[in-house]
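Dear colleagues,

For the upcoming journal club I promised to circulate an example of a predicted protein-ligand complex. I picked one with fe (ii) ion because it came up in last month's discussion. The inputs are reproduced below in full, followed by the predicted structure.
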Amino acid sequence: MNIVGINQIPGMLSWTHDSSSALVANGKIVAAAEEERFSRLRHHRGYPHQSSAFCLTQGKINLKDVDYIGVPYNPYAFLKHPNLRLESIARNLFNMAACWHYARRMRKEAGARTIFVPHHVAHAASAFYGSGFEKANILTVDGSGETESFAFFVGDSNGIRRVWDIPLSGFFSGGKWRSIGLIYTSVTSLLNLGVNGEGKTMGLASYGKPEYDFSDILNIQSHTNYRIDRRRLLERYGHLQRKESESLTQEHKNLAASLQHALERSIVNLAHEAFQYNGIKNFCLAGGVTLNCNTNSEILKQDFCDALFIQPAANDGGIALGAALEVAARKGEPATDALENAYLGPEFSNEAIEAVLSGAKVKYHKEDTIAQAAARLINEGKIVAWFQGRMEMGPRALGNRSILADPSVLGMDEKINTFVKHRESWRPFAPSVIEEAAPTYFEGVEKASKKSPYMLHTFYVKEEYSSAFPAITHVDGSSRIQTVRRDQNERYYDLLKALEAINGHPMVLNTSFNDKGEPIVCTPQDALRCFFATGMDALAIGDFIVEKSS
Ligand SMILES: [Fe+2]
């Protein structure tokens, strides 16, 4: 059975972002990718033409072979939590018509049935069916689904069952005031950290103290006892609005820290409430808010949490996959294999790469052992772009479309921020480290049963290494690590082992292979454009090395 996931369909009023596609065939995840990687438009909105074509090619099928299309949107959701504003009614009716039209067209053109999966169910499925857990509590937290920004599900062999959620607004409210994710977005906007700059707000929080009162802005004790009110935020802290030309003050940092503290407490309380409901100690998280590594790590620290799984595209970039996985489960072919890596995108052969390099009249040479060659360059203090294998799904580069450097070099973080990523000098970087070596360097990794393969947890650098890796140690001593096993990514693992052989540490600074404002590179052409437009020293692409003359 071939099931394609599509986020989003044509004609809908564009309330969603991170368009993406996925293919699940015979209970196996075959392909998944965000449309932005192909269109080169960050957080692409609209129909995912190119990523859906890639998924079919990867599965060696065409549209006529597709049995079901899973769409992560429920056109009837508004009937559960109705909003009686005229604008909301009109939008829902319009989207209902678009869904109906799309389903009819796909039935006619492809012979495929379209199944609409609620947004948060798609988030939940994207996490649960990749977790490898037999039973888990699933929390989904984001800016907005159809009618909620938080939902709690239980997943087991019977599938996924919604237990409760928190509605976004009342009958006549128009502003999604009760959205957990949009409160984070609003603070990001007050701090002028850019559209989709929530990760910057989290990074900034480490520089501040939680001195501001969020008790009636974001304060969740349980799903029935909460204060979530974005209006109060603007009323109370609107005066802290930062102009782009202004530098970040301690007040700004404290505001970010206060928000982060409120979020962590709220999500931990929701997780605890889920545990009290059924005693299950396995947790899955999904939704854009769960890219917040510090909150995830707070959950992991709790006694009521034994194991935690967060899928790599926890944001809306992963709901096409979630919709496909949910449809697969409903149709009797659930994907039960744990998602062991995120490499579900396109790859390019050495022949294809060499054709691009020679076509661009670039000087290059071939290496027999590219991992060792790249490790030598990194050890010399070079900034190395690393383009290998299938592209990662999700917002983090995980060792196939990455920029790498030596984490022990003082000032390397500032250098990359300034000359490669062209962004604020205080932005932190993360390391990749061999899984078995991670407990040597970081506190508490042992508790993460699945370790941290998707860079979605933070751990504190151990005392004895507190000054050894300045380029990946955040101001508060934490680090958002990626653990790597050989079976997850052999070539990247070899690179880390080669570094260990040279300098004693199987660890590298890893940041996404892109410049400010652009999506992570997808093709060799994207890689060359980004490499030559930024201050990187070398590019390891397939078996080839391209170096800039010094
Ligand atoms: Fe979402």
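Two points we might discuss: The first helix runs from residue 36 to 39. The pocket of fe (ii) ion is lined by residues 119, 123, 142, 145, 287-288, 316 (CB under 6 Å).

See you all on Thursday,
B. R.
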